[in-house]
Write a structure and sequence with these properties.
Elements: E1 2-6, H1 14-22, E2 29-34, E3 41-48, H2 52-62, E4 66-67, E5 70-71, E6 73-76, E7 93-96, E8 99-102
């Protein structure tokens, strides 16, 4: 199960967070999302735990808890909806002969 965590203190590292979730069971992967330019944590991340029951227990016990002075939210990650097509829809409108056309 993939878990989404938000509200993380900026100083928390992946090793520390792996150890915290490891108290509930095996951690398959963990990633704290970082700013591309500064490399600093953006305060959220993802944990993947292979055993659903352990992941659900981690969510139940950690959601809304205090983590180094920050209130964190922990929930099952939702998959991004597939919008289909590369780059998303789009197009433009232009006025041609006083009629609007979509392309």
């Amino acid at each position: 199960m993939k878990i989404f965590i938000t509200g993380l203190p900026l100083e928390v590292g992946e090793d520390e967070l792996t150890a915290v979730f490891g108290d509930f069971g095996q951690v398959k992967s963990l990633r704290i999302i970082k700013d591309r330019e500064t490399g600093q944590s953006r305060g959220f991340g993802f944990v993947e735990m292979p055993v659903d029951e352990e992941a659900k227990e981690a969510i139940k016990r950690m959601n809304g808890g205090d983590y180094n002075g920050n209130r964190i939210k922990v929930a099952e990650a939702q998959e991004k909806p597939n919008t289909g097509g590369a780059g998303g829809g789009g197009g433009f409108k232009r006025n041609n002969n006083n009629r609007e056309r979509s392309y």
